[in-house]
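Service request form, structural biology core

Requester: graduate student, group of Dr. S.
Request type: structure prediction, single chain
Budget code: on file
Notes: please return the result as structure tokens.

Sequence provided:
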Amino acid sequence: MNNTLLKGLSVLELLSHSDRPLTLTQIAVALGIVKSNVHRLMQALSEQGYVLRHDDSGAYTASIKLWELGSAVLAKLDLRRHAEQQMDVLLQQTGESVHLSVLDRGEAVYVHKLDSPNPVRAYTQIGGRVPAYCVATGKAQLAYRDEATLAAQSRQLVAHTPQTIAEPAQFLREMRRIREQGYAVNRGEWREAVWGVAAPIMDARGSVIAAVGISGPAERLRKRDLKECAQLLVAAAMDIARGLGSNPEFGTLLRLGGRRR
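Core staff response, request fulfilled:
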């Protein structure tokens, strides 16, 4: 692949995930690119409307054009289209925020969400990334990865709250439990005040490709029957899978507490 194109994409990724504008020097240091090369890249990206330069500081941010491109792609994703109806049903059934996420490089990426109508709700952002082992939608997908992947993940755990499962043996037991019961629960493992429940979505080959889940304030979800919520999510995940042409009758989605795949 063209080296200049790769560098340009790296710059866009860096700016997209940065919480503040970045100068040429900061971009060069972060990516290990010569400053003069960064300057040429930024000129080209700016001319095409992908980055904005702040006149007062000379720093750069990603422009809304990236959001427009991402939104156009998301709107065309079969996964999101097929999940929308089931997510709306879940919102009506539970009153909690509903999320659809995919797994990317060990992180759960939110590709769609419906916000809870309650004044106090869990905050997430479409396109946002979180460590997969800390949230229900991430755990519901991670649990079905191969043993080598799980073993590698178990050696890279970082505690984000006192509830985060950061001990390798405990993490591997949690992954087995999720496979056995067909759903995952997050009890304040990413944000202490937020709980969540999620179920995996399988494709036609029986591979987990996404997860659908709900999340809300710990105080509210702690009082609910989480297994009942899980049953709703498992049913929704099955319906989404069918819409994608899958046949979940033969997967672990079907049964809470069923046999391990």
